[in-house]
Amino acid sequence: xxxxxxxxxxxxxxxxxxxxxxxxxxxxxxxxxxxxxxxxxxxxxxxxxxxxxxxxxxxxxxxxxxxxxxxxxxxxxxxxx
Length: 81
Prior knowledge:
Distance between the termini: 10 Å
Number of helices: 3
């Protein structure tokens, strides 16, 4: 299995930080090889989503906006990718 490319998209708000923490926890829990990148630049965020926070796995939007996905939900998204 190749390394997953995971992006958490958000300008740095509290919810974006929470999604970043949950995503990092999910990567560890799932035991997948993934590079997690936190994208804060609005021009890059807008290439993927209109609402933040956003989660992109291998260049596919997996989640955007609220409510935030829980760690177990993110684990499932990572495993599907």
